[in-house]
Amino acid sequence: MNQRFPKSLSALGEQIETALVNDPAKAASTLIELKKLGVQLALDDFGTGYSSLSYLTQFEFNRLEIDKSFVRDILVDPKDLVIVKAIVAMGHALGLEVVAEGVETMAQRDLLDALGCDSFQGYLVGRPGRPGRPEEISPMLGVGLL
Questions:
Q1: Considering 17, 65, 101, 135, which one is annotated as catalytic?
Q2: pLDDT digits 0-9 by tens, 76-112
Q3: 3-state SS class at 99
Q4: What is the CA radius of gyration of the chain?
Q5: What is the predicted pLDDT for the residue at 116?
Q6: Residue 104: active-site member
Q7: Comparing C-alpha atoms, which of 104, 93, 26, 10 is closest to residue 59?
Q8: What is the pLDDT of residue 17?
Q9: Which residues contact 7 (CB under 8 A, 6 or more apart)?
């Protein structure tokens, strides 16, 4: 691949997200090249914004990340619960790992685990660390929540 990638993976993700919307063919070829390099691909913030259902058939993702807006009120809003159940079932039927974003309480984590989520992101697991500062990430290793 002769394309230069930005130094930041975040910037790369933003470029790919823009390409998904503006130039799906270019995005598909970029994602194929990344997969050849062993990069695991996640459809982030699924269910909101630009995360279209059609991306699940157009692109080869490894992971589906449920947007935190559905997780936040999952314990009190039956609509969020139904949506999360559907996303988990669909993700697993497509052979994808399903990750719940924005998990902040053990009650949320326990329910999401019972629904079949494969892993969790959010303040319950750990606060985001800064790039190049692994000491900020290490406290969450071995917590037993993942």
A1: 101
A2: 999 999 999 999 999 999 999 999 999 999 999 999 9
A3: strand
A4: 16
A5: 97
A6: no
A7: 26
A8: 60
A9: none
